[in-house]
Amino acid sequence: MIAAQLHGREDLRVEDVPEPEPGPGEVKVAVAHNGLCGTDLHEYFDGPMACTDEPHPLTGGVLPQIMGHEFAGVVSGLGAGVTGIAVGDRVSIEPLYYCRECDACTSGLTRLCDNIITHGICSNGGGMAQQTVVPAWMIHHLPSSVNLAQGALIEPLAVAFNGALRSGTGPGDSVVVLGAGPIGIGVTLGLRALGVEKLFVVEPAATRRAAMSDLGIEHVIDPTGIDVAAEVKRRNGGRGVHAAIDCAGAAATFSVAPSVLRVHGRYVILAFVPAEVPFQPWLLARSEIELTGSCGYGPGVFTRVIDMMADGTYPTTGWVEHVRIDEASDALSELRDGLRMKLLVDLPVPS
Ligand SMILES: [Zn+2]
Ligand SMILES: [Zn+2]
């Protein structure tokens, strides 16, 4: 079968590899679409870090690694003892492996597991392959109204929705979303579904602002050359907002967030900020602002996002693009350079 394997930094090869077969409790999936995200960029351009020559303690994964952790497809095989799943079922994969033993896991916060790893980051196989094998507990059935491309978007939208939930906001509240990439879009649509009344999106790139406007978001702000906090407050009846969600991870957004919040506002960091940023801790004390983050998604979030996709919460026009597997390396470069929105790699149908 055809797969895209990461051999080392900026070395992704589309090659013929042996087809995996499911063992007991495992399910084989013919992948239809696999999404690419910032985590992939990190592994490809700065790593590989999560996957090395040392077998991963949970999965045994080593390089070369078939990339791809955001995927959906059709069940193509079943290992012994798997029930409730049939060949031909349309499924999306919740790709997290966690240890079930560490402090985080035993507290129910499996997304924060000490050893957390994702199928397609460091595991036996990944979503950028015609076939992959996952534990049956990763499988989620898709309702008939959700197609496989939408199914491949569930994972990043679950990451985004967890961030929306971490803001603690709901009906009547106001929120600023910093950054209108795919995660920013997911956060914004998730907040709208939660009933957040006033949504402000801040994004310097015109194409991304246009995509947000096309999704029906009224207040889309270009931060270039303006005082963002003043502009948001002007549009928000003179008041700061209840929460700011950082989906950009730039030093500039980190300096905006505290000034845009009202007292007891919450600043949620969803982006993994690689840069050191200037920070004035007294800003937290001055207005009793809470600074927190969001990582992955909690139990039940994945299923909830599938239901929300079926409900029409997540229109996908204008921000999802498809590429072939042999275009993946170039697509990763274009994604890093901000020239792409959400990218789905379409896998060739197995013969
Ligand atoms: Zn991802
Ligand atoms: Zn754990």
Describe the overall structure.
With 351 residues, this protein is of the alpha/beta class. The protein has 11 helices and 18 strands. The protein has helices at 38-46, 103-106, 148-152, 154-166, 182-193, 206-214, 228-235, 251-260, 282-287, 301-311, 328-336; strands at 2-8, 11-16, 26-36, 65-66, 70-78, 90-93, 96-97, 117-118, 131-135, 139-141, 174-178, 198-202, 219-221, 241-246, 261-269, 290-293, 320-324, 342-346. The strands form 4 sheets. Strands 3, 5, 6, 9, 10, 17 and 18 form a 7-stranded mixed β-sheet that branches. Helix 4 packs across helix 10 (301-311). It is globular, with a radius of gyration of 20 Å. It starts with a strand and ends in a 5-residue tail after the last strand. The structure holds zinc ion (2 copies). One zinc ion (ZN) binds at residues 98-99, 101-102, 104-105, 113-115.
